[in-house]
Amino acid sequence: QGKFTLLRDTRTDGSFLVHHFLSFYLRAGCKVCFVALLQSFSHYNIVAQKLGVSLAAAKERGQLVFLEGLKSCLDLLFGEEEEQSGQPSPLQFISESASNLKALFDFVQTSLTPAGSDSWKGPVLLVDDLSVLLSLGATPVAVLDFIHYCRVTVCSQLKGNIVVLVHSNEDSEDEENELVVNSLCHHSDLILWVEGLATGFCKDVHGQIKIIKRVSLELTAEQDLVQIYQYKIQDKNVTFFARGLSAAVL
């Protein structure tokens, strides 16, 4: 509890980790606020059903609070957004000159603050994917402020967890995105860094994952623990193996 996990992908798609954490926390009985900026609700629901979880049922029983970013953006841009219960849209910053993510933070705080009747085990904030906020016009400082306030509220006060996906590319000229990614790496308790193979596409090995446990955050003299595995994504699960030991090689 109280941990910040960063999912980082380079030259490949790391969204399979988002689906894993979403189904994992819902099965564990946690209250989940999912800020989904990349795909529609039906997309996440179809994948979750393959993993044995129903997002629609989780929404109905109040366990899952889902922000469908694609729909909210369109409604805001075309003026169809209706303020619910007098609250502004969480993505209000799109239609304002000031790059202020306070409305989005208020949405997260309201969603995860436990009510008297709640019996969920712990709050979880899941963001897919943070880089989209920069594309929508938010400044790097605003994005980092948003994450900072979420960490204080969710991790420190509510003793919950945060899982955030970001896209990164060392060769990219998108300096704002790289600034956000590097800053988040310094604050993370755990980094799951998914990379495409340097040698190109392979049918039996889809990429490699670097697991970095940030022991140095605990102010001990120890170095971070780094483990590297390769993986293959299958229909309903993912197989991990040591580098060079895939079934195709052996």
Quick structural overview:
This protein has 250 residues and is of the alpha/beta class. It has one domain: 3-Layer(aba) Sandwich (Rossmann fold).
Could you walk me through the main structural features you see in this protein, from its secondary elements to its overall organization?
It is found in: Cytoplasm; Nucleus. Keywords: Cytoplasm, Nucleus, tRNA processing. This is Elongator complex protein 6. It holds the Pfam family ELP6. One of its GO terms (biological process) is tRNA wobble uridine modification. The protein is α/β, with parallel strands linked by helices and 250 residues long. It has one domain (3-76, 87-190): Rossmann fold (3-Layer(aba) Sandwich), CATH 3.40.50. The chain has eight helices and nine strands. The protein has helices at residues 15-27, 41-50, 55-60, 69-77, 102-112, 131-135, 140-157, 175-187, and strands at residues 4-10, 31-36, 64-68, 123-128, 161-167, 190-195, 207-213, 225-233, 238-241. A nine-stranded mixed β-sheet has the order 3-2-4-5-1-6-7-8-9, sandwiched between helices. A hairpin with a 4-residue loop joins strand 8 (225-233) and strand 9 (238-241). Helix 5 (102-112) packs parallel to helix 7 (140-157) and helix 7 (140-157) runs parallel beside helix 8. The longest helix is centred in the middle third of the chain and has 18 residues, at 140-157. It starts with a strand and ends in a 9-residue tail after the last strand. The relative contact order is 0.17. The model has no long low-confidence stretch (mean pLDDT 89).
Question: Layout of helices and strands, plus pairs?
Answer:
Blueprint: E1 4-10, H1 15-27, E2 31-36, H2 41-50, H3 55-60, E3 64-68, H4 69-77, H5 102-112, E4 123-128, H6 131-135, H7 140-157, E5 161-167, H8 175-187, E6 190-195, E7 207-213, E8 225-233, E9 238-241
Parallel strand pairs: 1-5, 1-6, 2-3, 2-4, 4-5
Antiparallel strand pairs: 6-7, 7-8, 8-9
Helix pairs in contact: 5-7, 7-8
